[in-house]
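Let's do one together. I've listed all components of the complex below, 340 residues spread over two lines.
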Amino acid sequence: MAVKEYIRERFFPHMWCPGCGHGIVLNGLVRAVEELAINKNELVIVSGIGCSSRISGYVDFHSLHTVHGRALAFATGVKLSKPKLNVIVPMGDGDALSIGGNHFIHAARRNINITALVMNNRTYGMTGGQYSPMSGVGVKATTAPYSTIDNAFDCVELARAAGASFVARTTVYHVNQLSELIKKAIVHDGFSVVEIFSQCPTYFGRKNKQGGAVDMLKIFKEKTVLIGSDKKKDNPALMERGIFVEKELPEYCKAYDEVIARARKA
Amino acid sequence: MSKKKLKDHLINRDWCKGCGICVAMCPKDVLVLDGDEKAMASHPEKCIACRQCEKMCPDLAIEVITEDAHGKEE
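Okay, and this is what the predicted structure of the assembly comes out as:
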């Protein structure tokens, strides 16, 4: 694997904690890009703020490290002005669904050809382990020492309802599925969302007594199943992994080109 | 396609943070953490070159080098 061609070695070792799942997402993303043989000059990574968003600094592609929650707005600008570029937006769960919740649903509604990776570790790791919109009920966090009472979003259902034309979910334990889904999401012509369960052993794991990185990875293995598996019938609490939505819908940049053509004729 | 054989584990000790994911996920118990809490291949002869350690390393610190039956490196 020619990892080193796609990363900025001068920034390694990276700033993520030992055992952080975000490093595995970076690993999977780099492998996906290598297998698709995308030209580095035609790839843009746009990120917001948070542990997850630091990923844009480590990859040797065009990169924009923007403001909290607004990465998709910047990415929409990049994509509309240069539709030929591949645009990938890695976001944390708080960045994507809380601070950037509005940008997320509207990018999905427009079906603009951007790949959104939601790295869901159910906490705000960078600022000290506050609970996030994906923490769910009964979770401990620095801001919820007696456990949370907020329901979590279902990222897949939210993206589906908002109009995304490709929606998938996986975990960092399932590394082969991870790179396969990122590849499919990049190739898909429309707004693609891949929710990736990632572990934060430093905050989420420690506060919720889930053990270290290895123990948290084993939880991902035990608590998820492939879509359509019989195990889900016996245990409805299991989370499904795989592709939930994959359909062809009019893409925003192409629709906009048609508007330009109509305006020129008028 | 001939079967790939292990040639070497390249482990970047400066990047490894000793999280132990590779040690736990290796199906053949090839890797251990050494005295400095860095990954090390203690039983390379058992390696089946599945690349699970390479793909799961959050620090991008492991590279599995294989060769085919003709000794061609990959």
